[in-house]
Amino acid sequence: MIGDATEHVAEHTGPGIGGFLNASFGNAPELIIAVLAVQKGLPDVVRGSITGSVVSNLLLVLGLTMIAGAGEVDRRSLLTQLAIIGVAAAAFLVPSVPGWHGDPNRHSLFVVSIPIAVLLLAVYIATTIAGLRRHGAMHTPPASEAAWSMRTAVIVLAVAATATAFVSEALVGSLEGFGHALGLSEFFIAVVIVAIVGNAAEHGGAIVVARRGRTKLASEIAISSSAQVAVFVAPAAALLSLVASHELTLAFRPVELATIALAMIAVTVFVLDGRSSRREGVALLAGYGGAVTAYALAS
Questions:
Q1: Would you say residue 78 has pLDDT above 70?
Q2: Whether pLDDT at 84 is above 90
Q3: Rounded CA gap, 283 and 287, in Å?
Q4: DSSP secondary-structure letter at 245?
Q5: How is residue 205 annotated by DSSP?
Q6: 270 with 65: CB under 8 angstroms?
Q7: What pLDDT does residue 175 have?
Q8: CATH code of the domain containing 244
Q9: Beta bridge partners of 275
Q10: Domain count, the chain
Q11: What residues does 72 pair with on adjacent strands?
Q12: Structural domain harbouring 69
């Protein structure tokens, strides 16, 4: 249903805005879950799931969509979003580097994280407004009687994404117990298992539309979701923790920042020519396998 609704939204808005709406509905529950996890005193889990979401969308989801359906992509739109992921990774260095020595959750690093969060939210708002205006100006809705109305498509997308979020969280709960039984670390569970299952809405929707030949829309879903997590979910969760019982610093581990940066660079190289290929998709999946191995070694 998410794939169908996203396609019908894109009929009215174009792939850029369609991918943005898919990512927004998919990431809204993730932000709520992140804030609840902060209240439970699990900042490492929150940061791990944020890292995992960014990396899995860039490497795993985009790789699968390229394999499912290679073709033309919106080079300008994707490079803009990849650039803001790079800005986020660079900004995270400010509180992260001091956090590598001592407690990464100390109050002084939270104080440093606040202006970083505000800056990233400003970048997100500015680039989103500019991007939506560009996509809106470029798109001419086709005269298709088969397309759902915009209102119907958005409602179905919202309901389906919300239902998927509830199911995903139920599955995450069982997977956490499974992971602990196998002796997996809390960090590995958050950065790999929780990130993949928690983003089921974007993952499934992107692959479905890619198989139908909508490569522009599929790539927009994957990279829009990744960018939105980096410059909206992460800083918003940090700011919302001001009213929680625990503070969320934006102090990430070296392996987290390294995998985010390398994933961003790899995807940038692959989309420079404005096309995707199955060979590139396989390379991105291999890169995700390398990231998972790095997380296991760092656990």
A1: yes
A2: yes
A3: 6
A4: S
A5: H
A6: no
A7: 61
A8: 1.20.1420.30
A9: 72
A10: 1
A11: 275
A12: 2-138+147-298
